[in-house]
Amino acid sequence: MTNQTQKNIAILRSKLVELFQGEKTGHSIDHLERVLAYALKICEREGGNEKVIAVASYAHDVHRIIGSNLGRFCTPVESLPMVKELIEPLNLTTEEKEHVLYAIEHHEEYAFGKEKISITDIESKIVQDADNLDAIGAIAIVRAFRYGSSNNMPDYDPAIEFYQNEYSESVNDKSTLHHLYNKSLRLGEYLHTQTAKQIAKPKTQLIKDFIDVYLKEFNCDF
Ligand SMILES: [Fe+2]
Ligand SMILES: [Fe+2]
């Protein structure tokens, strides 16, 4: 990380730690720290503007806090005025600030989703890959159940067949296990960068194994 990026992140951290205090839906400050770390690792190997990638990945989920406060799903675009204020004091050019807002606006578009992917720039792709890497793997399973319980979703409903449908973050899946099957299992195939695809492989296998073992235990098939 360059000195400039370190300074920008330190300024943002003090504000985000306060803003995300008490967040219990799986989008807490530790999610932001991991997404930042994934993003910097991918950027190191794949290139792109590090200043933009670091700030956008770290501040990408402000929409979740606004949503928690409003008691409804809030889209990333609705968070842009607040993000604009947060990044205002950072050492970024006007173009870089616009770029950060653009990457955040589009971070929840999925190839298998309702909101089709429109990004073509490496910075937005890396931010999206980094966020998606935290939705696959061991911590992703914990986050999924945390999100499910805070949204009154059952852990699993055997009456509903597994599906892989046109995904949207604004619509909750039928259960947390259905969510893992519908989203986490598929994400790895749709990542943009080779670096992220590599990191995703063992994480995707873990999700597969988790679903298999869960179903066996659920069905008392020991
Ligand atoms: Fe998000
Ligand atoms: Fe996120």
Task: Please explain how this structure is put together.
Helix 1 packs parallel to helix 3 and helix 7 (122-133) runs parallel beside helix 10. The protein has helices at residues 3-19, 29-46, 50-58, 62-70, 80-87, 94-105, 122-133, 138-150, 176-187, 194-218. The protein is globular and about 60 Å long. With 222 residues, the chain is mainly alpha-helical. The chain is built from ten helices and no strands. The model has no long low-confidence stretch (mean pLDDT 94). Bound molecules: fe (ii) ion (2 copies). The site of one fe (ii) ion has 7 residues, from helix 4. Residues 27, 31, 35, 60-61, 131 line the site of one fe (ii) ion.
Key traits:
222 residues, binds fe (ii) ion, 61% helix
User: Total number of helical segments?
Assistant: 10
Give the helices and strands as they follow along the chain. HHHHHHHHHH
* Helix content class: 55-70%
Portion of residues in beta strands equals: under 5%
Largest sheet: none
Low-pLDDT stretches are: none
Helix vs. strand class: mainly alpha
Total strands:
0
What is the distance, rounded to the nearest whole angstrom, between the alpha carbons of the first and last residues? 48 Å
CATH architecture: Orthogonal Bundle
Shape: globular
What is the CATH topology descriptor?
Answer: Hypothetical protein af1432
Which cofactor or ligand species appear?
A: fe (ii) ion
**Over the alpha carbons, how many angstroms does the gyration radius reach?**
17 Å
The total number of structural domains is 1
Overall pLDDT metric = 94
CATH class: Mainly Alpha
